[in-house]
Amino acid sequence: EMLLKYGAATASAGVQDDHIAVVNSKKEKSSSNCDNPFDDILYGIPISLSKIHRLADLLSVYRQEENFSKVVVHILIDHSSQIDFVKQFFDLAKIQKNQASPLTSFSVFLKLDTGYHRAGISCDERGLELAMEILKSPFLVLKGFYSHCGQSYDVNTPNKREEIASSDVSTMMNFVRQFKKRAKNSDSSFLPSLSCSVGSTPSLFTALPHTFELQNLEIHPGNYTMYDRQQLWTGVCDDVSKVSGRVLSRVIGHYEDRNTILIDAGATALTKETTPQGGYGAIDGFPDLECFAMSQEVTRVRPKDQNARFPFEELPIGSMINILPNHSCLAAACFDQYYIIDDNSSKFLPNEIVVDEWEVWQGW
């Protein structure tokens, strides 16, 4: 089971007045029985043709339901071929008039690479040319610019975090300035409304005064809502009690001859994501133990000091344990339901009362 301390959330969201925005990398299924709180959704990975069709179908359903009628879904573009995909979609919609989409355009964030080198076009002439291509497309509306400061996960000192966060923001700022100069000869009335979306969980905690020179600034630290072992290592989470998303598991085997136990949470509950501390997760309250080997459904646990005896008496077969995941985003994605506890002690005790259950919208 996935256990969350009350107040945690599972997405990167921003609230302004009655407007709630979220970044998500899944295309959720629509349900007329669900009161959707998010009316501004960014599909957070570069778009492909098949997903354009699926997003269009989703938006068509939204338009027909009162709770969803005002939902806006933005797409990410970081290559000119994705502009062609959008054109192909609308060309096909014209041919198939009986199935024509009610959409006339897609809202777009240009995905920029400010140093992480995972996705995004470079913040140079290539990026500027792609931004101008988006402007010229009759099927696209440029909403803003988006970068993810993922390289901040690789450092664990304040100085390094500040250096990376500063580079992320300054690179974005320089690009925006150049783009505004390039776009001033076109209809530039939209320029003041462009959003600049930057950051990550570690870089959120770096005070950068010049950050606020960016108009319509968004900072998207998705992981801070739950934290995990990775964030304990980076130092932005300073105590185990602040990791609010845990995986609840049970001891299902004792093996005295091998000085190990077996628990019933494996890769399908925790994934095989690693962290600098090592192991596939950590059992809360037992810092001297390590989850050293994992299979699909189970994990083996032993003392970090292999000369030490395992404390079998403290973890009898059938006992429940809570595990700090290495990466809470990945672990949370393994479950279709979250159990919410109002844990004032921050100890995640087995007798905590479940105050709510959250069903997860899933689907790619």
Kindly summarize this structure in a few lines.
Helices cover 24% and strands 26% of the residues. With 364 residues, the protein is α/β, with parallel strands linked by helices. Strands 1, 11, 12, 13, 14, 15, 16, 17 and 18 form a nine-stranded mixed beta sheet that branches. Strands 2, 3, 4, 5, 6, 7, 8, 9 and 10 form a nine-stranded mixed beta sheet that branches.
How is the topology of this model organized?
Elements: E1 2-5, E2 12-16, E3 19-24, E4 40-46, H1 49-63, E5 72-77, H2 80-95, E6 106-113, E7 121-122, H3 125-136, E8 140-146, H4 158-183, E9 195-198, H5 201-204, E10 217-219, H6 229-234, E11 245-255, E12 260-263, H7 267-270, E13 282-283, E14 289-294, E15 299-303, E16 320-324, H8 328-332, E17 337-341, E18 354-359
Parallel strand pairs: 1-17, 3-4, 4-5, 5-6, 6-7, 6-8, 8-9, 9-10
Antiparallel strand pairs: 1-11, 2-3, 11-12, 11-16, 12-15, 13-16, 14-15, 17-18
Helix pairs in contact: 3-4
Structure description:
The chain is built from eight helices and 18 strands. The longest helix has 26 residues, at 158-183. It is elongated and about 75 Å long. Strands 1, 11, 12, 13, 14, 15, 16, 17 and 18 form a nine-stranded mixed beta sheet that branches. Strands 2, 3, 4, 5, 6, 7, 8, 9 and 10 form a nine-stranded mixed beta sheet that branches. It has helices at 49-63, 80-95, 125-136, 158-183, 201-204, 229-234, 267-270, 328-332; strands spanning 2-5, 12-16, 19-24, 40-46, 72-77, 106-113, 121-122, 140-146, 195-198, 217-219, 245-255, 260-263, 282-283, 289-294, 299-303, 320-324, 337-341, 354-359. With 364 residues, the protein is α/β, with parallel strands linked by helices. The relative contact order is 0.13. The chain starts with a strand and ends in a 5-residue tail after the last strand.
